Each structure stands twice: as structure tokens, then as C-alpha cells.
Amino acid sequence: TSPTAAPAPPTDTHCPYCSLQCGMRLGVGEGTKAEVLERPDFPVNRGALCGKGRSAPALLARDVRLTGPLLRDRPGGPLRAAGWPEALDRVADGLAQTREQHGPDAVGVFGGGGLTNEKAYLLGKFARVVLRTANIDYNGRFCMSSAAAAHRKAFGLDRGLPFPLDDIPRTGCLILVGGNPAETMPPAVRYFRELRENGGRLIVVDPRRTRTAELADLHLQPRPGGDLALALGLLHLVIADGLVDKDFVAERTTGFEAAREAAMAHWPDRVERITGVPAHQLREAARLFGTAATGMVLTARGPEQQSKGTDTVGAWIDLCLATGNSGRPYAGYGCLTGQGNGQGGREHGQKADQLPGYRSIEDPAARAHVAGVWGVQAESIPGPGKSAYELLDDLGRPDGVRALLLAGSNPAVSAPNAGHVTERLRALDLLVVADLVLSETARLADVVLPVTQWAEEDGTTTNLEGRVILRRRAFDPPEGVRSELWVLRELAARLGVATGFPVDAEEAFDELRRASAGGDADYAGISYRRIAAEDGVFWPCPAEDHPGTRRLFLDRYATPDGRARFAAVTHRPAGEEPDEAYPLYLTTGRVLAQYQSGAQTRRVAELTEAAPGPFVELHPRLAERLGVADGEPVAVTSRRGRAVAPARITGAIRADTVFMPFHWPGAGRANSLTNPALDPVSRMPEFKVCAVRVERAEQE
Ligand code: SF4
């Protein structure tokens, strides 16, 4: 069942969790248990790991994971153990039947930003070549799609960071907007510390005074949804103060005049009224950024997960362009991607509107190239399908998806308006979930397929810098567990496609290289051998003798005229603002010891001990008004649902805002509350801003 046996330990590999993709070495400790050893030679983290990475081997234990397929014989009945042939036959028959009765688009595929590049690539190919459905999207749509859309609009190309992480300490002033690496990726904090040690200035924008904000020279604390107005206010000030880099704007950009007009309507007093950030702080930030020799802006989910996320990121890019902070070393705009393969996951065809190589599915030349690699007619490749939330919202409806194959995602916890999404998942004729654990979504499935995980398989991921790295198989998976690559080949064969789905990861990668050749994310020159020899290779890398591209846009942008484009956007309110019935903002986020929906990290004892459950962060003045003491349960209600969790009273949050982490299911599920209002360009839901009311709750 396995293409290769695990090599003898220790094995150099990478963490299964976030987009930093820290290097680690896996060895065998006491009682033949896997143990994490330091790997100080990997440049991104130089041996440092957070608690999630250090404890990751706990997920290899049989008692926390699935070790054989599960089937449900009737709706509402229990899941029972089954063999692989029976489970695969049931899936293939169900998918074929749905396709026959309702057409190919009634079958959907939902992928994940944690899947390796090889899995993401073959999942996209499976959807389009075997199922012939347009309806494939993935949870990365909920992660960085607004930044990706803004990047492409401005620069013609999207790579999270268009420069390596080690440029950060050498910039003069860095504005970090809506990101909290001190909790989400602690080994990355050293880059920000070194920046300050080198005399650079750090400005953090966040409605909460987070651990990262504590490191800053200046913390701007806007209302949730205020990031766009804030960026425009800063642009207004750098223009008014004569800090525009006129030569750069003239030589390397287009559209400045429209951006200038938009910014001039956002004078400091107006921005203060919109955002709650005092005008004097705004002036200080504009001075620090506008006068620095080099500057960077990094965004994360805060400004991106909004119904105006693309425009918001566009406004921050405009600030970089106006000040000449782009297209040169130690300067520029970048996005801190979240999921382990958030970057690679969006490049190889899991996205509803894209084909491998980060190509548009509507581009005839792109379709012809990919069709050639796949050995199919270009016309047979379906067009763009529904975006992630739209797909989930339509599940089980007459014109929606009726049978869904889901891999590497847990939308019953992680999707916005998760109570509604859970109902839609229940309405499906067939739900198939491939996962390593029995997640909340897997519990709803008709068929559950247990799959291998990071230390049990070879595969590549692409970290937040665009560095393609190689995770190595260190251990054999338990009997009864299979790789998604094997599952796809078996299903393809049952559905009449006998070839084209390699089980060997390197073989899959070599096909991906051909499919990506000539595209934006060009992997043609990247091989397993090179990755292992070079600490990863940065794309684009069009040939084996090409060194890879650490810094993008030094000579030209990837737009038709080679110039960067100003976004020229204006402020607008969030999809839902507080009112009499729901007078507070809710914003959501992460904690240090948990990851994403928590499906994996909630099963690791030391992480659960460190972060046992959800909480509601609220300001002391609000707590006093509500008559709530620290630790007492509070109920948070939005137009979509209710969540109950203990109060955590802190002066680190705005008094008009409450915060909940989103890693837990059940009564404290934060996403029961969140608003699925979508960004019109990226189709990103508005996770970061909605209106709620908060009350004391009896212990539930
Ligand atoms: Fe893993 Fe991210 Fe922690 Fe590094 S920072 S050990 S990649 S979770």
C-alpha cells in the first residue's frame, strides 16, 4: 500500500502546522516513540519551534486518530468500521449516481490549505478530469484570498511575501496590520526583534494589545473594520507632508492621481472618527513610515477577513507604492499566510477559478497548456465554480452540490455562520471526509477515510515566503491508513480513469512541475533533489539551472506594462455595524497553543492543558456594565447564533469590542456568530467584524 518504506531515523522534515513551516528533525525516543530533535541548520527558524511543533508527534499515536474507514448505513445511523474496498466502492458509486441524476456540478470537492502541493494538485485534477465538476474550492478562501486578490491587482502576481523573511530585520519601519505572530508563529518573532535591535521601528495595528503589539514602538488600536480608513489616513498624511517618492511613482506605477484623490478625502480627524485612532498617533505613524529609508507593510487575517478585504489590502499597498517602498530590497508589501501550505495550496488548482501554475481557469492558453499535461481536451475542463462559502451555503439544495468530497478541512467549526453550514452539510445526499482524525465535520459524514499525515509521507509545501520545502516520510503509517494520493487513484480507477493519478509523491510533483511551467507560480526547475540540497527553492524557478527567486519585482512587476497599479479605494463600513440590538463589535482570532479548527491540537494533551477552551475577552468597563466577573460565563449573540464561554477581563481590548478564539466546537463555537458577508472580489467572508450583544449567562 505504501510506495516506499520509511527511512531510518533521524529524518529532516518540517512542522505540520503553520505557514512558517519550521524545520525539525524527527527521531525515535524512549519506547520507540517519535520525538522532535532540533534542526538548527534550517534558516527560517534556526532550530526554534513553538509548542505546537514540538508536540506534533503526539498526533502519530493510534489512540487520537483514525485507523480504518468508517461508514454510515442509513441517515442518522451510527458510523461503523469498514474495509477499504467497501468504503471506496460506496464513495465511487455515490459520486457516480449523483453525477448521473443531477449532473457533474452536483458533485463538489472541498480541499484544504494544509494539503501538500502534490495532494492539492491531484485533488484539482481529480475534480476536473474525473468528476468533471466546476465546484471545487478550499478553506484557503477563508484564509488569505483577499491579500491574494489585492496582490494580483497591484502587482500582477501573488506570492505572500515577495521577499524572504530575513529582509524584515533590515527594513527601516514595518507596519504589521492585524497579525499576531507572537501567538501564531512564535519563532518568527525574532525577525521583528532583530528589526528593532537594528534601529528599525515597528508599528502594530490591532484592536487588541496583543503580545505582538507589546513589542511595538507604536500600537494603533482601531475599531474592527477600521483598517482601510487607517491606511487611507496614512496615505493622506504622507501626501500632505510631501513624503511621496515622485520618481518611483512616475517610473514604476500607474494610477497615483486617483489614489491621491481618494486619500485626500480621508483627513486625520475624519479617520479618527471612523477608526477611533487618535489623529496624533496617525501623524506619528505617517512620520515614522514616510521618513524611513525603507519601509514594509505586512498584513494578516485582521484586515483581510473583511467584506472589503481586497480594498483594504489595496490601500496598504498604495501606501507602500506612494512612498517607493516596493520593488527594492528590504521594502515592500507582504502577507503573513496562515495555514501550513496556504501559499502552495492556492497555486495548484484547488481554487474554483484557477488551474495549476496559478493560472486563470478562464484563460484559453492556460487551459490548453494544462489540458496538454493532463492528456484531455481543453474544452472538457470545466469553467470557474462557486467559492467556498457559496458552495457550502448551497449544499443539498436542488441546484447545489448534493455529494461532497472533503479533504483537510473542518468547516463545521471553521466556516463562518458555522451553525448554518453544519445544517447544510447534514442536507447532503453523500458526505465523504478524508482526515487523520474524527473531526466535527467527519462526524457528520457518510464515509470517513483515514489518511496519512506529515511524518508518514513525502510531500512538498510552500511556505509564506514562496520557499518550496520538502517534508520527508519518517515513519510508516498505521495499518489501515492510506495517503490521499492512493485514495484519488483508487477512486479515479473506479470512476473509469485508469491512469494519471500517481501514488508516489515525487512522481506527482514532477507532473505538477510540468503543469506549472510558464505559469505565475512556475515550479519547472524545482526538484526533490534540489529542495533537499538547498534548504528549499523560491518560485518562480523556470529551469533546473535557475537559482529561484528570493525577491520579486526588482526590475518590473508582473503586469502587462510592468508597472504596479494603485488601487485607489475609499472607506466603507463593515457588512454589519453595531446598533441598538447588537451594540458591540466581535472580532475572532487564535491562541498560541491551538491551531485552526483545533481538530488536531485539541487532541494533544499538553496543548489542551495550555489552552483548554474558548473565552470571551472584554474590557473592564464593559464587564462592570454587564456585572460580569472574570471567569464567569457570558453569552454572545449575533444575528446568526449564540455562543457561551467564560469572560476574560482585560484592558488590552477596546471597550466597544469583544474577542473570541475560534478553535473550539460546541457551545463556545465563535463561528456560530460570524458574518458570511463576502468580499465582492476575493469572496472572503467577514470573519473579523460583526455586531453582537453580550450578557451574563448562567453556567451552561
Ligand atoms: Fe510549527 Fe508554525 Fe510553530 Fe513553527 S511556528 S513550530 S511551523 S506551528
TrEMBL record:
<dbReference type="Pfam" id="PF04879">
    <property type="entry name" value="Molybdop_Fe4S4"/>
</dbReference>
<dbReference type="InterPro" id="IPR006657">
    <property type="entry name" value="MoPterin_dinucl-bd_dom"/>
</dbReference>
<dbReference type="Pfam" id="PF00384">
    <property type="entry name" value="Molybdopterin"/>
</dbReference>
<keyword id="KW-0411">Iron-sulfur</keyword>
<dbReference type="InterPro" id="IPR006963">
    <property type="entry name" value="Mopterin_OxRdtase_4Fe-4S_dom"/>
</dbReference>
<dbReference type="GO" id="GO:0046872">
    <property type="term" value="F:metal ion binding"/>
</dbReference>
<keyword id="KW-0408">Iron</keyword>
<dbReference type="InterPro" id="IPR009010">
    <property type="entry name" value="Asp_de-COase-like_dom_sf"/>
</dbReference>
<dbReference type="GO" id="GO:0051539">
    <property type="term" value="F:4 iron, 4 sulfur cluster binding"/>
</dbReference>
<dbReference type="GO" id="GO:0003954">
    <property type="term" value="F:NADH dehydrogenase activity"/>
</dbReference>
<dbReference type="InterPro" id="IPR006656">
    <property type="entry name" value="Mopterin_OxRdtase"/>
</dbReference>
<dbReference type="GO" id="GO:0043546">
    <property type="term" value="F:molybdopterin cofactor binding"/>
</dbReference>
<protein>
    <submittedName>
        <fullName>Nitrite reductase</fullName>
    </submittedName>
</protein>
<dbReference type="InterPro" id="IPR050123">
    <property type="entry name" value="Prok_molybdopt-oxidoreductase"/>
</dbReference>
<feature type="domain" description="4Fe-4S Mo/W bis-MGD-type">
    <location>
        <begin position="8"/>
        <end position="64"/>
    </location>
</feature>
<dbReference type="Pfam" id="PF01568">
    <property type="entry name" value="Molydop_binding"/>
</dbReference>
<keyword id="KW-0004">4Fe-4S</keyword>
<dbReference type="GO" id="GO:0022904">
    <property type="term" value="P:respiratory electron transport chain"/>
</dbReference>
<dbReference type="GO" id="GO:0016020">
    <property type="term" value="C:membrane"/>
</dbReference>
<keyword id="KW-0479">Metal-binding</keyword>
